[in-house]
Amino acid sequence: MVSTLRSVLIALLLFAAVGGSVHAASEKPGSVYNKVKFLDWLVHSSPVSVRIEKSDDEEAKQQLKRAREMWEQASEHSEKEEFELAEVHISEGLKLMTKVSRKFKDQDRVKQARIDLYKQVKGHVEMFVVVFDRIADEKGGDHIRKMLDREKIDSLMATAEEQYADGDLAMANHLMRQAADMVDHALSNARHEEVLLRELSFESLEEEYAYEVQRNESYVMIIDMLQKKKTAKSQASASFVQKMIDANAKMRQQADAAAEKGDFEEGIALLEKSTDKLSRALRVSGASF
Amino acid sequence: MSIVKNLITPAATVIAVFILLLFLVNKESHSADPNQFNRLMAPPSKRNPPPTEDGIHDGPGASMLQTPKSAFGTLPKSKSGNYIDWVKALDEKKIQPRYDRNDPEVQPIVMDLNIVHEVKGSMPNVVYPHKQHTEWLDCSNCHPAIFVPQKGANNITMASILLGEKCGVCHGKVAFPVSECRRCHSQKKKQSAGAKAAAK
Q1: How many CB atoms lie within 10 A of CB B38?
Q2: DSSP string spanning B89-128?
Q3: Three-state SS string across A234-272, please?
């Protein structure tokens, strides 16, 4: 059920996304039959059609009935290979369904979604305001601080909270989104065209040893994946890689033994050497970097 | 389009193209190993199957979708994933995805900030570019659930990426796979002293 909903959704979004720019060669009969099938589903078994049937909204029921007639006629025309006439009825049927479904929004779900969105965007604003302050402090300047109008943010957020409390979730979300856009803009201006270097720095040899273990394991993991996919160029290189892996396992044991005794320096040195060999093995395995 | 509106939550600021990517990823992504290297090796006849055969779509709508083969015709190629260089496709304006589902006028807030992660050994450093991500994605797609926007707060490792966490939440699933080491590990070691100048 969910996956059916998702495919319809994706179908329609996709039409919106690619329909305008990339033109598929119209695969005429096939595509008309498919649309007839789709309309059939929409008017007879889609969640909207089921909800309309269960409701006592006579007007909506009338519209559904008309949409079903459109499907019937489209179906007949396509049987007779009158594709253009079929298309006209398909399009009319889709239009009717679009109109009538508007009235049948799943109220509770929409409300819950708006509440979730509100909370998420509010969290986003609160987090990024703190980050912005940190960056302004780091860069030590009022010129940065000026990039974000704090009074405006505060007042947007306060009004959003009032609307939220009053139950106008759409307005609350609209205002909170504005606040979020302001902070996002401010952050991207504050860091415009910057490069931040996250340097490797270790507080202790023990920490560095832990990094070496992780680096070593990353190589083992990647080589293992490549071995499973058999990317090595030849039998010879495959056995070279295996030899490296085995040698590494031994070296790793020695390194761990050294580390256990507290000799992290020795552990690090052993792993560095071994990982280096693994990196050569990785190239042989077929990874390109 | 209001059928669409009824079906999805307004919470989804997800862009149409992100879903497009989701739907275009090969069916292998649904099996246990999220970062299978074999996508790279799939023979051309098995690449980008039509929606009815991709194992992702079902229901009556699937057969109405444009097939990747016809949609991808003019887009710049890449070596793996779904064999399209989406970053280039966007740069060259070969595609113009809507950022907002409902409003064609909405433009993304693009952030041009590179974060260089130093890596020990012969492996080049990782350059994470905000620009190429924020052209498609909202800040909230990553912050704070995947990455806390603060130095030292994220322990990113290759193992976690291979297991589908951190960068691997997307790379290997809806963005180019982990097998393309050099697209992430793009900063050669010599340059790392002058990282500032080099990352562009």
Answers
A1: 16
A2: HHHTTS----SSSS-TT-------EEEEEP-SSSSPBEEE
A3: CHHHHHHHHHHHHHHHHHHHHHHHHHHCCCHHHHHHHHH
**B142 contacts: CB under 8 Å, gap ≥ 6:** B133
| pLDDT (tens digit per residue) in A119-165 | 999 999 999 999 999 999 999 878 999 999 999 999 999 999 999 99
DSSP letter, residue B118: P
Q: Which residues of A touch B74 (CB under 8 A)?
A: 22
Q: State the pTM of this model.
A: 0.79
CB B132 within 8 A of CB B87: yes
A30: amino acid identity, one letter: G
- Token reading at B84: 């399209």
Please tell me the distance in Å from A72's CA to the nearest CA on chain B.
Answer: 17
All residues of chain B having their beta carbon less than 8 Å from the beta carbon of residue A113 are 9-11
**A102 vs A109: CA distance, rounded Å:** 14
- pLDDT digits over B104-145, tens only? 899 999 999 999 999 999 899 999 999 999 999 999 999 999
Chain B CB contacts of A185 under 8 Å are: 109
- Dihedral sign for Cα B73, B79, B83, B85, please: negative
Beta sheet of B113-117, edge-to-edge order: A194-198, B113-117, B126-129
Domain ranges of chain A: 25-104, 107-190, 205-284
Instruction: State how far the alpha carbon of A131 is from the alpha carbons of A77, A128, A143, A148, A186, in Å.
Output: 62, 5, 16, 12, 11
Q: Using an 8 Å Cβ cutoff, are A183 and A129 in contact?
A: yes
How many other CB atoms are there within 10 angstroms of residue B193's CB atom? Answer: 10
Contact status, residue B2 vs residue A8, Cβ threshold 8 Å: no
Nearest to A191 by CA among B139, B54, B10: B139
A-contacting residues in B 149-168 (Cβ below 8 Å): 149-152, 157-159, 162
- Domains in chain B (CATH in brackets) are 77-190 (3.90.10.10)
- Give yes or no for a contact between B166 and B156, defined as CB atoms under 8 angstroms apart: yes
Amino acid at A189: N
Report the gap between the CA of B79 and the closest CA in chain A (Å). Answer: 12
My answer on whether omega of the bond before A29 falls inside 30° of 0, hence cis, is no
